[in-house]
Amino acid sequence: MKMIAAWRFFIRSSTVEAAVSAAIMMTPLSYRSPKTEVRQSKIHGRGLFARADIDKGEIVAMKGGHIVDRETLRREITPRLGPVEIQIDDHLFIAPVTEEERESSMLYSNHSCDANIGMRGEITFVAMRDIRADEELTHDWATTDDDDYSLECKCGAPNCRKNLTGKDWQRPELQKRYAGYFSAYLARKIAMLAPGP
Question: What is the rounded CA–CA span in Å between residue 151 and residue 83?
Fold first, then answer.
């Protein structure tokens, strides 16, 4: 009798464990507003689009994942998953770490030199202006990245910089344009660059 009770408990526990594991695997790491959807982009691959009007200041998305250091990101994650991270400090990033987590972590916000969403804090993207339904939701990597890359920009915006670098946040014209919409990490770095009173 004890063996049957133990067996029933094991089956129930295993079923619950399997259900919890399945639920965890299906739970998105990142948040995308119900007013958004992912579809094909003219900028690059898939992009994030407004399904409905979004007001200035409204939360559009929040990036989720694991905190990883730069070495782990470059050595283990980027070669397997591609560019999936958001920087939160000099050597720390939020990123998925497995293939299974990649899709639930992605925001699909492409870069644009004429961005319509910016940062609030470290992981939250908000509308920088009123956005109409069907507009692609884009952010300027200058508001999130401090890195050593340099690459050709193909965003197609009238004000396209043609070349993006991981140090664009240092450009005075971008600091002015995106004031209040840099990640908290970069906002601190910008404040340290400002001349004292």
Answer: 14
**DSSP state at residue 83:** S
168: its two tokens: 């664009």
Give DSSP secondary structure letters for 34-80. TTEEEEE-SSSSEEEEESS-B-TT-EEEE---EEEEHHHIIIIIHHH
Residue-wise DSSP of 111-160: B-TT-SEEEETTTEEEESS-B-TT-EE-B-GGGT--SS-EEE-----TT-
Which pLDDT score is estimated for 197? Answer: 66
Q: Which residues form the domain of 115?
A: 48-61+109-197
Query: Could you tell me the pTM of the whole model?
Result: 0.84
Residue type, 169: W
Asked if the structure places residue 11 within a domain, the reply is: no
